[in-house]
Amino acid sequence: MAIRNKLNLDPNQIAACRAYAQTIGDQIQAFIDRHSTVTVERTVCRLAGVDGVDAFEVPIPNRFVDEVHKTGDLSRGVSVYLAAALQATGLDLAAFTAAYLQDEVRLCGHPAVSPEAAVRILKPYFDHSFAQIAAKRRQRDEFVKRFGKPACELYVIVATGNIYEDVVQAQAAAEAGADIIAVIRSTGQSLLDYVPFGATTEGFGGTYATQENFRIMRKALDKTSKKVGRYIKLVNYASGLCMPEIAAMGALERLDMMLNDSMYGIIFRDINMQRTFIDQYFSRSINALAGIVINTGEDNYLTTADAVENAHTVLASQFINEAFARLAGLPESLMGLGHAFEIDPAIENGFLYEIAQAEMAREIFPNAPLKYMPPTKYSTGNIFQTQAHDTLFNVATTMTGQSIHLLAMMTEAIHTPFLSDRHLAIENAKMVRTTMKSIGDEITFCPDGIIMNRARTVLSQAHDLLRSIAETSLFAALEAGVFADVRRSRNGGKGLEGVFEKHPDYLNPAMDRIKEAHHGH
Amino acid sequence: MDIRPYGDTSNDGKVQVAFTLPIPAGAKGVECAKEFARKLGLTDPNVVDCEPIGAGYSHYIIYGSTPFAIDPDLIHVHEVETPALSMEEIETLIAAELGRDVVFVGASTGTDAHTVGIDAIMNMKGYAGHYGLERYKHVITYNLGSQVANETFIKKAKEVHADVLLVSQTVTQKDVHLANLVELVELLEAEKMRDDVILICGGARITHELAKELGYDAGFGPKKYAEDVAAYAVLELIKRKNRE
Questions:
Q1: Contact assignment for B128 to A419 by CB distance below 8 Å
Q2: Which of A418, A369, A425, A420 is nearest to A153 (CA)?
Q3: Is A198 exposed, middle or buried (0-12, 13-18, 19+ CB in 10 A)?
Q4: What CATH code would you report for B87-243?
Q5: CA geometry: angle at A426 spanning A423 and A429, to 5°?
Q6: Is A515 considered catalytic here?
Q7: pTM score of the predicted model
Q8: Which residues of A are less than 8 Å from B222 in CB distance?
Q9: ipTM (interface pTM)
Q10: Which CATH number fits domain B1-75: 3.40.50.720, 2.40.30.60, 3.30.30.60, 3.40.190.10?
């Protein structure tokens, strides 16, 4: 894509922002590299093929990691225990797991094996999962090759709480023109330190992110893809306390996108920041391996903080998310950086500020599939007014060439969308993108006009903010409440007890293989 | 005097309805929609739009007339009867009449992930030009955010000796918000805290009447701002203090 510079932004200032963000990311990465977490270890189990639950619905990866945490030394990594147990018992993983559930064998207490031996013993199991992930990636590539990929994709959510009902709504939306289906997650899953198992039929506000739910929806959408002649993408949430486990499940079941922000859990779910940074890294590494587009959550900042005053925090966060994504091996084409149309429509020239922000994001991140979120904060029960406001959002999306167009619902402030709400939203977006198709190519901005000045100011503020964060640390910035007006402490929040420092002999064969694959590219 | 909805002539009873049917769009769908509108009580329903919306479903927009009329004099509503006070007036009242800080604890409780309602009332910035409670002098606020369990909410209220509890419910599914609101009242009663706090709920579909029914002291719906909530709470606190 040719880099456009309609806003006449200062390339040196943009480069400086990137350099500061890289410094910020490197500081945190040094911390990440020295640590692991319980969900990272459970992910290693999952990638070795450990799945299922015990009689009390406790996932087996949790059973394994909990046992090592309690009676072994988890700082060496769960994989050495797994390898030692397989070696000593002479069982394969499936047989070992079955015996484990009968309390016939334990994971700890076997003669230790060297890291090299552990890698060798576990190799066939990881080979199997990695081959499956590679095969799923190829399948996606074939679909995209066969059906093409629109420049801007329409994204809708389904949230019935019953995966089978979600299927009905998702298929209807896809037939009506949606390209991307996000299955909303059941309330509160982000705070569960395990991933539920099996199909959800009675969730609140959504379904659980489970591997079975992923499978059911993927199968249904593949069927619809063939029917409508477009590849329908599937989205879920690799967020919360189980970021990497969900990423692994998504990689195995061919999800196409994951909500996967480097800081969202810290700010909006009060998850401990050390935990989140470590978890986001492994989850993003898996997404990179599987070719899954991440969606970042900057739009959320503007639901609590003011969209005019805090626009620069969105841009600064996009730079930081970009730096973390790069560190995890994600190419720009998989960086779905987020932002939102959340300025109070009563503000004079507010629409011009929106255009400035959206165009700026487009120009600064030219190769990223930007995810643009619709108005929510100023949506009221007046559905007619909301529909009009949403149309303005659609205009901004088309004018500034956004990539992932999250559709605005006229019943945003009322209930989870009706089937018809989704349809009307799709029709509205399609109308705007048809009737205004090339408007972005026709428009130049008034030099030193409102839009150019606004973009320049926001970039400049983001630059200063990034500089000050780079001079202290991202930990300190989060403690000071820089993003979304929310303050979090370094040792507060949920999940800190699941963070630990790695032993010098720590082993994570899955991560090592992903790193090799990234270097190979 | 009886009234009917007003379209373009007095008492013409014109209403619009829109809905989806689980059948394909077409002549049969239109007739089904019309018949359905008749069953709703509409006379002369006019299906002005019929659209296929995918997977065998169709959407209808209908205009019709209702033969029913109501007498407004027979309808009674309960609204929070509080004089409109400004932020400064409320601050002065607290200082003069209570002589101490008032503690508000707020949250979007249960399954609701939306903070927009509670933020509109509590955050410094407020909403639509109405400053939030954080900005008030003599007011201490704790905004616990969204998806807060009722138990957690009560624990915090106890810990900080809350005077006023604000519960927000924005978006709901299958009326789960009602069960959640009732559960909070029951838990407060079990903890013997119900009479020690002013309990207020708010949200897009909350009315004062509904709030009272559910066992709350007051309810605030759309177009109510921080000063409406604060004025009610502070005057109620003063009333309770004088009663002691």
A1: no
A2: A369
A3: middle
A4: 3.40.50.280
A5: 150
A6: no
A7: 0.86
A8: 380-381
A9: 0.82
A10: 3.30.30.60
